[in-house]
Amino acid sequence: MTARFSLTIAALAAAFALTACSPSSESGSTTTTIFTSEYGTVKDAGYSIPAVPISKVDKRFHRQIVSYGTKEKPGTIIVDTPNKFLYFVLPGNKAVRYGIGVGKEGFAWEGEAYIAWKQEWPKWTPPREMISRRPDLAKYGDDGMKPGLTNPLGARALYLFNDKGQDTLFRLHGTPEWNSIGTAASSGCIRLMNQDIIDLYSRVRPGKNARVIVKQ
């Protein structure tokens, strides 16, 4: 076997290995772009959102563009609850994939809705059911918790309504608790790192075409 032939075989083997080991999710989507560098400090509306120590977050949950085959139209949001991913569908069988935190057992939700409206730096008003479980939250029951870095809804919130125009009380929102991404830790809503919810917020146009599909 000549040296040149040996080098050719080695190059082909290396190329195959790179293809076989390309990053992918549990649902088979292949990463084309990853935004690991996008989690630094963010100045926004007078707030300074702290940097996420992103090296401590599983790389699967970093924001990335992935190949994603679906019949849903671009602009649709698909929440893959078991795998802790949220997909924003793009043209050309692509999607932006975000890592998420989901509802604890007993608080999970599935179904279809649409984003009726969205809010920067929202107030947080705990629902009555939550206050009955957590009486210490009663002080926020009327006027809500003011916006801020410790607000449970984070830097942005997207509000989900059903097809009858009724508020589902479920939200896609930011969180200062970056270490909850990839876990089932919330009271039912879908949470993203603040840097990610700002990105998603910029892509969404509220209305009945802004469909959200939550899969369990």
| Order of helical and strand elements | HEEEEEEEEEHEEEEHE
Write down how many β-strands occur, each being a DSSP E stretch of 2 or more residues. Answer: 14
* End-to-end Cα distance: 55 Å
CATH T-level fold name: L,D-transpeptidase catalytic domain-like
Shape: globular
Please identify the oligomeric state: single chain
Domain module count: 1
Strand order of the largest sheet: 1-4-7-6-5-14-9-10-11-13
Strand-pairing-aware structural class = alpha+beta
Radius of gyration, whole Å = 20 Å
Q: Determine and state the CATH class.
A: Mainly Beta
Strand content: 25-35%
Helix share of residues? 10-25%
CATH superfamily: L,D-transpeptidase catalytic domain-like
How many helical elements? 3
Q: Give unreliable regions as ranges.
A: 1-27
Please state the average pLDDT score: 83
Largest sheet: 10 strands, mixed
- Mind telling me which CATH architecture this is? Beta Barrel
